Amino acid sequence: MANPFSRRDVLAATGALTAAGLFPRSARAANPDVVVIGAGAAGIAAAQTLLKKGQTVAVLEATDRIGGRVHTDHSIFGEPYDMGAHWLHIGKANPFVGYGQKHGFDIYRSPDHEILYVGDREASDAEYGLYEKALNHAYSAISRAGEQGRDVSPASVIKRKDAWDDLAHMVIGPWSMGKDFADFSCADWYSGPEGSNWYCREGFGAVWAHGAQGVPVELSTPATGVDWRGKGVRVDTPKGTLQAKACIVTVSTGVLARDTIRFDPALPSKKQESFHGISMGLYNHIAFQFRRNIFGTRDDGYLLFKVGRTDSGSPRGFGMLTNIGGASLSFGDVGGNFARDLEKQGTDAALAYGLEVLRRMFGGGIDKEFVKGHVTTWGQNPYTLGSYASAKPGARTLRSALRAPVGDRIWFAGEACSPDLWATVAGAHKSGVDTAKQMAGKLI
After folding, report:
1. CB atoms inside a 10 Å sphere around CB 376
2. Is the pLDDT of residue 280 over 80?
3. pTM value?
């Protein structure tokens, strides 16, 4: 779900896909070998891997669709709308780039075009220079701390210098990590991957769903408890209990930290600590549909504006991806604690805020070009409670505790569990595959 400035960034027919991919056949193996909890990227990848190895699998999904935080909607705007993940990060390491190209999707590399506004005009050359200087200053400070293995916050290593610092903060923190500078670890940030980003014109959720076809999933079936007192595990749901040799838990750390799933006996304290230490950031789309390109950007162009100085620790602004895929949809992406504040105000207020920002930049004439808008609320979604995870300052070492199985019967997978591609769909997929392979060797 993260945007193009990920961490070290100095570093077929759509209708058919929807029918076949998003609503798979429901089936349950009697006393399966493995129960997979969650049908997002990690859960589906784990199930596919186990099925190929001849294991019987039951996949439980709490919601009425698969995909979790990777989902392309067509009903809201009448065109592909990635409500969660949109960027195919780290192209060389991302399996969905090659998969999409192989199966006829329009997969293309992210263009490199960005416009910066100051008030109601484009920035001058001097102002672009000041912004770049502030951005490089922040990147350098975080990188130095990360390279030294310092598990401290960016806020503790960056010295404020001028009025452009808040925009640099927003770009590196909320617009990328979904967190403010006080809330994530430099060492964890530095461990992220480098590489180019790609898009799928039909939507990331569409290409992902194509690859998920054929996996049997029980929709609207949340796991409420995992009993591992005896041999194997018993997984409770509102529709009954499943007995299995083991289970793979792929729900978000936000959900795990909320104790939505009861474990009996309780999980080790270090494991529980990891749910809180590798915590969920928040990153939401304020999506706008206009009749024409009002921004002066190219297709898939980035638009930033100088944000006002704040002492709250959370810049009040957003970054934009405009004219997505050459269509009429644009994202104004807001993150961190400011995104949480907007969620509390409600989606109408968030959309009104976004439109008012655009009016200040481009004038009131944009109203006649505006078609409709939509605002995501991943922080209020009870099945995610955030967008993607990263380590709090001082908590980076808890990533290994998060990945570790319990008693060789309860295994964990997901983007937060990925050692190298965390906060990405590719990382969730890889985590699901790797966890399933490790588990398969332990099943008796």
Report:
1. 27
2. yes
3. 0.93
